[in-house]
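The records we work with from here on pair a chain with its fold. Taken together, the tokens spell out the fold as the letters spell out the chain. The record below shows the convention in full.
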Amino acid sequence: MSVRFGDIALKLIGILLMLAALGFAVSKAPDRSLESLVPRWAPPPSDFLELDGQLVHYRDQGPSSDPLPLVLIHGTSASLHTWEGWVAELSPTRRVISFDLPGFGLTGPNSDGDYHDARYVVFVRNLLARLGVGRAIVAGNSLGGEIAWQLALADPGRVAGLILVDAGGYPFEPESIPLGFRIARIPVLREGMRWILPRRTIEESVLNVYGDPTHVSAALVDRYYELTLREGNRVALMQRMDQLAPGPVERLSEIKVPTLILWGGRDRLIPPPWGEAFKRAIPNSRLVVFPKLGHVPQEEDPAATLAALRDWLPQVAR
């Protein structure tokens, strides 16, 4: 009897090992080189420039004569593509600049693994100087919003208007955290994420930040998934998660430029009360909430968010 039991146990262990190996093979996701991703994700008008030793993916669209460009900054694990709906409508009449932050998109990791807010602010200042931008209207979503308002404090002469879209910076309590972010914050699990990343993990993360799951398409998930696999981005995300810290929100009252605050009413990562907190803290600010949208409302419904933007833009003189 003991022999038969031993044989059965060995067979079960063998089956489990085979299933584990199969799961690893299916979920194995090696890094992808920049060169392999460019054809799909950086067609014209995408371009690259070298800045402080790093190759930066950016787009500079619309009339170069525009005296007051719009600068669009994406959030964590996103890319300049999150603004495509806005850019398509704005660029016929306005100069619009978007780019991939270090650690994300096709720009990829920086050389020293520093992804603190202050480093990002310096990066944006240097990039705008390189592109010959003096004053601009600066918009940012999530992490990008956190960078945008800190840029307005660090370099007030450069920011003529501010657009905060579900912006970070306050020590908020999330109602729900995207699965990919949760994994990147857990030391034991995240080591495996360097080599194994099921596409479903990214799909769950995107669904988590959208207000309406029917707005999440296969093509959208493909974009987030493939750009996450860009060489070095997964490690950069882990490093960014280790460096999270609240911004100097006690200084928000020092921002004097016209400020538009856009918020998804179904944002579970940075819930709507934090939009109200920005409204209370920043003088001359306007808050617009979109009840059915989530954490990336500019991507989920460009038309609705653009309507609010166009209504506000006349407050910022060219």
